[in-house]
Amino acid sequence: MSVLFQVKNSIGVVTIDRAAKLNALDLETFRKIEEIVDKANDDRAVRGLIFAAAPGRAFSAGADINDLTGLSPEEAGRRASYRRGVFQKIATADVPSIAVINGFAMGGGVELALACTFRFATRQATFSMPEINLGLLPGAGATQRLPRLIGMAKALEMMLTASKVAAEEALRCGLVDRIIEDVETEPLNFAVGWLPFSRSAIKGIIAAARGSELPMEEGLAREGEELAMLSASPDGIEGVAAFLEKRRPAFNQ
Fold first, then answer.
1. What is the separation of C-alpha 204 from the centre of its chain, rounded to a whole number of angstroms?
2. Any catalytic annotation for residue 131?
3. Please, what's the largest Cα pairwise distance for the chain?
4. Is 204 exposed, middle or buried (0-12, 13-18, 19+ CB in 10 A)?
5. pLDDT at position 41, please?
6. pLDDT tens string 150-165
7. Region 135-146: what's the mean pLDDT?
8. Phi, psi for residue 129 in degrees, rounded to 5
9. Of 35, 74, 131, 238, which is the active-site residue?
């Protein structure tokens, strides 16, 4: 299996397991990831996703180059569109996600991390965008997500020079959110912090926050739409009632 999946404390743990290929992301891996995200959206018992890699040197070396050779422009475009679509599913999933980067992340591996809600890295992690060495550009979302996350100049520096960014620098520039020592317990302990809250409210907050990439008026309109839906939802009604009755809410999740 190229991708393993198990649920721990209501958090789905997705493990890329292609150590012989430095966890490169081939089409089969993308299909497995897509299937897992779809299932997580449908299963209300799953409250979050953690993306990690089997122990070794790499979180992911990026796209499997064997999947990129001998393609017509049309087929290359279709495959790139599919990869972008899978990562967009992660970015817009009903549950938040954490990428746990231990070892090096290159190209598509960085793009997988960028699609997640949070990024945790060990001190051994390094990040790079080497596509320019192949005469290509990152095609699974980095040209859009990376500048939004770390600023245009730093994003272009990474993409135009293929330079490596160590964990401490990644933390300083905002590429990662925290540096961790334990790749299993720390992300899971963080994720279980979501469990007491309404799954619908978490989804609404993330959807509204994504509106910050829109012009202000459109973003505010999205915030209002999400709030209106939550206010009329079972969890929204229960939360207000519990506050007035001075008791803990019993969310349906």
1. 17
2. yes
3. 66
4. buried
5. 94
6. 999 999 999 999 999 9
7. 94
8. -120, 90
9. 131
